[in-house]
């Protein structure tokens, strides 16, 4: 075998790089390229997930939800559903308009998706009925999520002044490169408010619409051309712009009895803060020493970054620029706190993981030094930075970023990438100590040692790649989230193999010169113990059978932990973040003051937590949203009955409790406060460890009747509230809130020369207000709106509106109450669709020890069996797909369950692909359908370590655990491949079967133990990360169990299979000879 390979291409490759000066240059070049990639790769906390997402808004004033559904939603959905690549279309038909959310498949190109959507919409505008607006299309992406939030407060400035200062700060930092969208939340905007007096208007025969028209006509500046003058033309612009409050006050509205009537005579003009229904206050917690107490009016500046920008560098640059604005723009009394800095957390995480990577490299190097000596360890250490450098370069070429997943992929590969160099170095060292190699050239010995293992080495590397690469086929939101792991590990394995065939023999020749390489060292205690254990198993049939039975019982016992629910499955474990939110939905129609009052009570509960630094209380507005809020559309929460608490914690390095435990501790009391107000829903929203979903538990009720769907939702909600395992229950169904309908008598209105639109517009101006334009104040950092409306005290009842006088064609004033009839009722409920089917949503979360929606669903589903359809039949319960028809009554589980199902389904398919690929590789190499069963035996044996380890530590079996199990399968199989190849080499050399399996196991014991310990040490640094600890545990426990069990089990199982094969061959040979003789 060696002789044949000496003249082969691989032999020439090894000999060339073993003695070439090109080898160290290539190593240095790879290190340089890796360093450049590490510097240039953008740093972020989470990986970029490309999910083209678009919001489409269509207004249709006056239309009911049912009319919007029929005229806009049904037609629009069909248009969007025709677009290639669209995966979900969510629709809401609300009073006066519709909203669509169009989500393309994960990985679709954002720009191409946008072009496809715009092309489809604007080539099918005829789907919109008369009276509907043109669609407003808003792209959404993860880059819209602010990376930095600064919350400003002052003991002296009012909310208007504070917001103006913050707006000026925004204008100053906007020119910084890589800043994208900036948003100001809270405070008050400057506004010119025209509060008209209905009685005074009536006295001068004026209406609110007259004021709006007057202001519009007197707020203009137009280019009028130029004068044909010499020597230069002179531009002319008539100017009638409103720039000050005095300009408004001095507008002439009428002349009465020879006296000029100004706008100030019929209305109060206020230049001051707007009256929008929103509130943002800041409260400091126990962990914020030296900060003011109580509730403080605040303004938050949220800053997003451009795609691909380095969040860490950008955040530092922004903070430096803001601090440089003192005292010219930021007065001494205006202070700010950083309420979000994803750049800092990204830097902390990356620095922590880079440190862990260094620890892993040092640990693996120390291990090799203990087993093989310092020189051999130095040889292996060369391979680690070389491989990692090329892997970083690959990440750069694939446009990845430096984030927690890519860094974990690098740390994860350390344990497996050293396997090839370990095998090479160990075999070279072993050959050097063979008596037959005494006095021979070191180059020749190293080359022969590498050629001896090159075949199984390549096959084993391919086996690991076959075990890891199929993970890249995982779809859904988790696919791109985890994709750096298979891509990085595959690259690392290929580079590691090339390094072991080039750099390892070169380093061996360079570093092992002068070392003693003759003489047999004999067998140590470990090898003697191994032979003492395996030999009886080979020669004693009953001991062999007992051993096999014992291993089988261990395997069955380990697997039984899953159906016994001692090991529970979950998509990802809970993360440990520096924040969480409390989302409050009051009954529709609840005033802002009531919403804020309830939020303040919840804030007092949260502020008792010692780890809280500050709490932002938002009522009628929203906090800066994260990826979770992007998917859930928290940025649309601007109604007075909506609010949230943004709870910021001390850095996780400064507290003992994890953020999930802190959030769980306040959940019962917050839910108790919410239950005091009938119809209030509250959710404690943690930052998800992976891709976000609508809620942990989502029940989708499908059926043709909206009224009956709501009835079913009410029944299910009652059942959910009876379950101690389910909490944070909420629904998208709006509560009944009063509606006062003023029906215009069109006949009477027409006879008076008042069209219905004029009546309606005057009522809108009185209550909601109408803006006739902007006040042209160029020095103001934000636009200054002019708003005409009734004073606040007259908007509290309908009396002022009903007495509002309108001018008829006969110059006679007619009150609104004479033109309308009052009808009281309830506001119509929105209608929701998902993928063209009417649906009603019910949300919840799991609490307590369950933690996983899988078991919450399993426990709760039997309760749904008693719910009947309107036809009296049981509801169909769906888990993985939508109903076939919108006329089918059914309940579908969604939320985290859907992602969990898809992830484990895809990982299961990938694992099946792994087994098939490994089987094909092994069959092709050993040319046997029997041998692969011995080679693949360690795969199930790894479960004996993986599942009990999860049970013992009380950890969920997560998607990362599954990834660790798959990667571990490749590692243990590669060890088995090299072991079986050595057995067959001994058999080819003429050894008896019994001696061959025992000797090969003894020879391969040390490198296999080295590989196993390298994986354990390399993975140990990941063990304390809340997300990837499952991966680390699966690798460590699986490798330990598979190594301890497979070292005796693979030789024993191979011996049993081969002995049976030899017996069959002898029997067949005997039968053939008998037939020949006869």
Automatic annotation (TrEMBL):
Gene3D superfamilies: Multidrug efflux transporter AcrB pore domain (3.30.70.1430), Multidrug efflux transporter AcrB pore domain like (3.30.70.1320), Multidrug efflux transporter AcrB TolC docking domain, DN and DC subdomains (3.30.2090.10), Multidrug efflux transporter AcrB transmembrane domain (1.20.1640.10)
Spans traversing the lipid bilayer: 12-39, 378-398, 405-425, 453-478, 485-507, 542-564, 910-930, 950-977, 1008-1028, 1034-1057
GO molecular function, one term: xenobiotic transmembrane transporter activity
Transmembrane keyword on record: yes
Top-level division of the source organism's lineage: Bacteria
Cellular-component GO terms for this entry: plasma membrane
Keywords annotated in UniProt: Membrane, Transmembrane, Transmembrane helix
Protein name per its UniProtKB record: Multidrug resistance protein MexB
């Amino acid at each position: 075998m060696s002789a044949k390979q000496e003249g082969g291409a691989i032999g020439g490759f090894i000999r060339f790089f073993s003695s070439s000066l090109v080898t160290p240059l290539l190593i240095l070049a790879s290190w340089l390229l890796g360093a450049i990639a590490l510097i240039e790769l953008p740093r972020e906390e989470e990986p970029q997930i490309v999910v083209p997402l678009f919001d489409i808004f269509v207004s249709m004033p006056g239309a009911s939800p049912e009319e919007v559904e029929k005229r806009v939603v049904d037609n629009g959905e069909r248009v969007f559903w025709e677009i290639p690549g669209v995966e979900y279309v969510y629709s809401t038909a609300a009073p006066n308009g519709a909203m669509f959310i169009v989500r393309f498949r994960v990985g679709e190109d954002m720009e191409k998706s946008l072009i496809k959507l715009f092309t489809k919409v604007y080539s099918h505008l005829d789907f919109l009925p008369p009276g509907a607006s043109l669609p407003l299309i808003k792209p959404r992406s993860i880059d819209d999520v602010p990376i930095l939030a600064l919350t400003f407060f002052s003991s002296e400035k009012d909310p208007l002044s504070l917001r103006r200062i913050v707006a000026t700060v925004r204008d100053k930092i906007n020119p910084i490169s890589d800043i994208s969208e900036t948003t100001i939340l809270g405070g008050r905007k400057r506004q010119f408010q025209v509060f008209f007096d209905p009685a005074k208007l009536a006295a001068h025969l004026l209406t609110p619409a007259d004021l709006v028209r007057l202001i519009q006509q007197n707020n203009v500046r137009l280019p009028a051309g130029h004068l044909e003058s010499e020597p230069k033309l002179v531009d002319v612009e008539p100017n009638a712009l409103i720039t000050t409050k005095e300009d408004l006050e001095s507008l002439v509205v009428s002349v009465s009895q020879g006296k000029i009537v100004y706008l100030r005579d019929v209305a109060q003009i206020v230049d001051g803060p707007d009256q929008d229904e929103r509130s943002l206050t800041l409260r400091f917690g126990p962990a914020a020493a030296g900060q003011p107490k109580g509730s403080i009016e605040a303004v938050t500046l949220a800053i997003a970054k451009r795609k691909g920008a380095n969040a860490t560098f950008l955040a530092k640059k922004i903070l430096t620029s803001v601090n440089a604005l003192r005292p010219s723009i930021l007065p001494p009394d205006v202070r700010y706190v950083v309420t979000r800095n994803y750049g800092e957390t990204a830097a902390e995480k990356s620095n922590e993981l880079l440190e862990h990577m260094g620890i892993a490299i040092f640990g693996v190097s120390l291990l090799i030094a203990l087993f093989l000596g310092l020189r051999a360890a130095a040889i292996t250490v060369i391979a680690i930075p070389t491989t990692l450098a090329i892997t970083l370069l690959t990440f750069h070429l694939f446009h990845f970023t430096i984030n927690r997943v890519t860094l974990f992929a690098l740390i994860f590969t350390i344990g497996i990438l050293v396997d090839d160099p370990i095998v090479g170095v160990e075999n070279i060292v072993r050959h050097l100590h063979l008596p037959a190699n005494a006095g021979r050239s070191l180059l020749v010995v190293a080359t022969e040692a590498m050629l001896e293992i090159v075949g199984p080495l390549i096959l084993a590397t391919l086996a690991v790649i076959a075990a890891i690469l199929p993970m890249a086929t995982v779809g859904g939101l988790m696919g791109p989230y985890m994709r750096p792991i298979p891509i990085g590990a595959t690259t690392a394995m290929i580079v590691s193999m090339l390094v072991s065939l080039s750099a390892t023999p070169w380093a061996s020749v360079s570093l092992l010169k002068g070392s003693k390489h003759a003489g047999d060292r004999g067998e140590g205690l470990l090898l003697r113990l191994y032979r003492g254990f395996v030999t009886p198993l080979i020669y004693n049939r009953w001991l062999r059978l007992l051993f096999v039975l014992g291993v089988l019982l261990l395997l069955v016992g380990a697997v039984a932990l899953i159906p016994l629910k001692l090991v529970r499955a979950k998509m990802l474990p809970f993360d440990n973040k520096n924040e969480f939110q409390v989302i409050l939905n009051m009954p529709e129609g609840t005033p802002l003051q009531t919403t804020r009052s309830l939020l303040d009570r919840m804030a007092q509960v949260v502020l008792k937590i010692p780890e809280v630094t500050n709490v932002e209380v938002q009522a009628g507005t929203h906090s800066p949203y994260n990826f979770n809020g992007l998917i859930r559309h928290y940025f649309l929460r601007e109604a007075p009955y909506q609010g949230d608490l943004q709870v910021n914690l001390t850095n996780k390095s400064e507290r003992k409790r994890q953020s999930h435990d802190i959030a769980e501790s306040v959940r019962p009391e917050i839910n108790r406060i919410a239950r005091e107000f009938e119809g209030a829903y509250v959710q404690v929203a943690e930052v998800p460890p992976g891709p976000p979903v609508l809620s942990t538990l989502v029940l989708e009720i499908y059926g043709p009747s909206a009224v009956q769907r709501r009835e079913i939702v009410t029944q299910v909600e009652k059942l959910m509230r009876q379950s101690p395992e389910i909490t944070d229950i909420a629904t998208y169904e709006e509560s009944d809130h009063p509606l006062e309908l003023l029906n215009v008598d069109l006949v009477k209105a027409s006879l008076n020369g008042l069209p219905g639109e004029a009546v309606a517009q005057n009522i809108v101006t009185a209550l909601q207000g109408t803006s006739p334009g902007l006040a042209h104040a160029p020095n103001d950092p934000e636009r200054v709106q002019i708003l005409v409306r009734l004073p606040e005290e007259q908007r509290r009842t309908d009396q002022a509106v009903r007495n509002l006088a309108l001018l008829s064609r006969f110059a006679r004033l007619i009150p609104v109450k004479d033109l309308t009839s009052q009808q009281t009722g309830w506001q119509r409920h929105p209608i929701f669709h998902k993928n063209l089917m009417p649906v009603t949503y019910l949300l919840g979360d799991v609490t307590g020890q369950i933690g996983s929606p899988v078991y919450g669903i399993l426990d709760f589903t039997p309760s749904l069996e008693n719910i009947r359809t309107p036809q009296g039949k049981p509801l169909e319960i769906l888990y993985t797909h939508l109903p076939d028809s919108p006329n089918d009554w059914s309940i579908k589980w969604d939320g985290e369950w859907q992602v969990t199902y898809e992830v484990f389904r895809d990982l299961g398919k990938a694992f099946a692909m792994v087994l098939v690929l490994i089987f094909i590789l092994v069959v092709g190499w050993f040319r046997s359908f029997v041998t692969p069963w011995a080679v693949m035996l360690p795969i199930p044996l790894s479960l004996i370590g993986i599942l009990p380890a999860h049970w013992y530590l009380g950890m969920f079996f997560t998607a990362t655990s599954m990834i660790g199990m798959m990667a571990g399968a490749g590692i243990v199989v590669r060890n088995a491949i090299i072991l079986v190849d050595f057995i067959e080499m001994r058999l080819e050399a003429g050894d008896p079967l019994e001696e061959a399996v025992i000797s090969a196991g003894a020879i391969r014991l040390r490198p296999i133990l080295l590989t196993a310990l390298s994986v354990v040490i390399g993975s140990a640094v990941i063990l304390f990360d809340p997300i990837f600890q499952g991966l680390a545990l699966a690798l460590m426990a699986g490798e330990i169990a598979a190594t301890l069990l497979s070292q005796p089990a693979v030789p024993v199982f191979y011996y049993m299979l081969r002995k049976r094969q030899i017996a069959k061959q002898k029997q067949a040979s005997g039968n053939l000879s008998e037939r020949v003789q006869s």
